[in-house]
Specification:
With about 375 residues, the chain is of the alpha/beta class. It contains 13 helices and 15 strands. The longest helix has 19 residues. The two termini are about 15 Å apart. The chain binds 2-succinylbenzoate and magnesium ion. Magnesium ion binds next to loops.
Length: about 375
């Protein structure tokens, strides 16, 4: 099997409302879509990076450069197995340790392509003979707000829609007061927080005090390379620490768990450099009795469907950041859009590949720039 062409589509979609994390605000989500063409078949992927490096160093620009100038020429020069191309591609790409989101996007497109060629849903390819869920549990992630009234309305709305847990973004100056208010107003709702690396060593006591709020977990309080600080905090608190940004590779994740730096892992295949690495982290956590859940990065439909597929694996035991399309988008680029069922789940599509159709007309509407590599 050979790749005939690779399309790179830079799109920008306005969010229904601004999303604020510790490092900045997102109002328009920029992203790079990747479409592989092989024979009459195609495979879609969505790279995780945004216009600015608010989450990790990668951006739409770096992802495009790496795919266009480095990965695409390599991938198009090779012939790939008809059965098992995604893992062969992952092995090939593993010699580049950097730019995980660029590598993940390419590998992800190969998974969709292979699943479509075999006429099976992509989650069945991930699972092999393992049992998979037919619906995945969903929580919502809410950005930082200056006005508690706004946050209050968002939580009310999320609970009414059936979200299974509420994740609040926190940052220095937006932590204890917010959590105290939320607990006073909403009682014992399932609640967790995500700091996106917003704290330092000096905040140890402040963070240890978060035990008072009975949180499901505290996600990524310190910088990504501060495993030792996470381990020291975990030793002090009963709230489970969850790693997101720090869990960069399966090897680093295993080391973090050895150090006691976390009791829960957030799996984002984009951050880990691909679905294969994501599944490896799932498996190594399962062996150690560490539950995982699927993180999100304001994905549009293609990335959302890829994430739903991976979250069907058995050790995804906690609510995932996989909200309905309308949580972020006026109109998502897939048909149908992702919706919640009455129990706060997303039903996993069983059509081939990622399952739902990509609306070319909407991709065109949001298009900033297109490059076709032949
Ligand atoms: O850390 O999980 C994160 C959004 C942008 C960057 C980082 C993160 C997030 C989210 C959004 O929390 C989760 C979602 O996509 O619903
Ligand atoms: Mg996070």
């Amino acid at each position: 099997m050979r790749i005939d062409a690779i399309e790179l589509l830079h799109i920008s979609i306005p969010l229904v409302g601004p999303f604020r994390i510790s490092r900045g605000v997102i109002t328009h989500r920029h992203m790079l879509l990747v479409k592989l063409h092989s024979g009459g078949a195609h495979g879609w992927a969505e790279a995780g990076a945004d216009l600015l490096p608010l989450y990790t160093y990668e951006t739409v620009g770096t992802v495009r450069h790496v795919i266009s100038d480095l990965l695409a020429p390599e991938l198009m020069a090779e012939s790939w197995p008809d059965d098992g191309a995604p893992r062969a591609v992952a092995a090939h790409l593993s010699r580049w340790p950097w730019h995980p989101m660029a590598k993940a996007a390419v590998e992800e497109a190969f998974w969709d392509l292979e699943a479509r060629r075999k006429g099976m849903p992509v989650h069945k390819l991930y699972a092999g003979d393992r049992p998979v869920r037919d619906r995945v549990e969903v929580g919502i992630s809410l950005g930082i707000q200056d006005d508690f009234g706004v946050l209050e309305a968002q939580i009310d709305d999320a609970l009414a829609q059936g979200y299974r847990r509420i994740k609040l973004k926190i940052a220095a100056g937006h932590d204890h007061d917010v959590l105290r208010n939320v607990r006073n107003r909403f009682g014992d709702i399932p609640l967790m927080v995500d700091a996106n690396c917003g704290y330092t060593e000096r905040d140890m006591d402040l963070l240890a005090g978060l035990d008072d709020y009975d949180l499901i977990m505290l996600e990524q309080p310190f910088e990504y390379d501060e495993l030792e600080q996470h381990a020291r905090l975990q030793e002090r608190i009963k709230t489970p620490v969850c790693l997101d940004e720090s869990a960069k590779t399966p090897e680093i994740t295993a080391k973090a768990l050895d150090m006691g730096a976390a009791q829960i892992i957030n799996i984002k295949c984009s951050r880990l450099g691909g679905r294969t690495a994501g599944i490896d982290v799932h498996d190594l956590c399962e062996e150690r009795g560490i539950p995982v859940w699927c993180g999100g990065m304001l994905e549009a439909g293609i990335g959302r469907l890829h994430n739903i597929a991976v979250a069907t694996l058995p050790n995804f035991k906690l609510s995932n950041d996989l909200s309905a399309s309308r949580r972020y988008w006026e109109r998502d680029i897939i048909d149908p859009e992702v919706e919640l069922d009455d129990d706060g789940n997303v039903v996993v599509p069983h059509e081939p590949g990622i399952g739902y159709a990509v609306r070319d007309d909407l991709v065109e509407r949001y298009l900033v720039d297109r490059e076709v590599i032949r």
